[in-house]
Every structure is written in structure tokens, then in C-alpha cells.
Amino acid sequence: MSIFKQKIGQDYQTVAEIKVLLEDVEAERAADPDRDLRYELARAIEHVNRFALLDPEESRTFVEELANFEKVDSQTAIKIADLKPQSRDELRSVYAHERYALDGTELDDILDVVARYL
Q1: Which domains are delineated in the chain?
Q2: Higher pLDDT, 34 or 47
Q3: Within 10 A of 9 (CB to CB), how many other CB atoms are there?
Q4: Of 66, 84, 110, 115, which is least surrounded by CB within 10 A?
């Protein structure tokens, strides 16, 4: 089974972790330059190369630190780690679909963690 058809799992991963997986795809393509990448895969590789600024271990530590907050589940922690919001408004947009809102102190505490990883 080629890597293009393999289901890796259903756990959430950061952009930095996905970059590592897509590097394997790029290496496979480098070995066979006549092989074209599907448009979506090429755009995904371009995206992770542009936006994955942390290494995978550091991004996972970042997510775990965010997940320690009461109102930050693992999926939201990954969104925050990938987006790295720098203001209350940016952070509120991550929570726009939730049924609850964070107060100013909670927002500031999360933004303090984000600031350490910028």
C-alpha cells in the first residue's frame, strides 16, 4: 500500500507533526521525479513548509501545556498551537464555535503560553 492511500490514524496532530509525515512523501517523490503529486497533496506540503515553525516535539509540548487549562481540550489546543493567536480577539475566534466563552484572565493565561512559543 502506498503512503498516499495509507490511513495513519485519527488523532489530531499539529502542523509541525504533519510536516514530518509529508517529508516522507517528498522524499518518495524525489526518488521518482516523474511522479506527479496530486494538487491537494502539493498544496498541503506547501502549507506545512510555510507554517510549521516549531519542531514536532516542541509543538507537542506546547499542546500539552495548553491542554492543562480547564477549557482547552486537545483539539482546541492543537488549533491554538497551529494558529498562535496573539490577541484576545484572535483567541476568541478559536472559541467562536464553542458554547462557552473565556473570561479575560483565562484568555490572558493562554496568550501567555502562546507568547513563549512565538
Answers
A1: 15-51 (no CATH), 56-116 (1.10.150.80)
A2: 47
A3: 6
A4: 115
Q: Does residue 3 register a pLDDT over 60?
A: no
Q: Which three cell numbers mark 30?
A: 524525489
Please give the pLDDT value at position 2.
56
pTM of the complete model: 0.81
Residues in CB range of 30: below 8 A, 6 or more apart: none
DSSP-assigned letter for residue 11:
S
Gap between the Cα atoms of 89 and 28, Å rounded: 41
CB atoms inside a 10 Å sphere around CB 92: 14
Gap between the Cα atoms of 34 and 30, Å rounded: 9
Is the pLDDT at 46 greater than 90? The verdict is yes
What is the number of other CB atoms lying within 10 angstroms of the CB of residue 37? 15
Sequence-separated (6 or more) residues with CB below 8 Å from residue 7: none
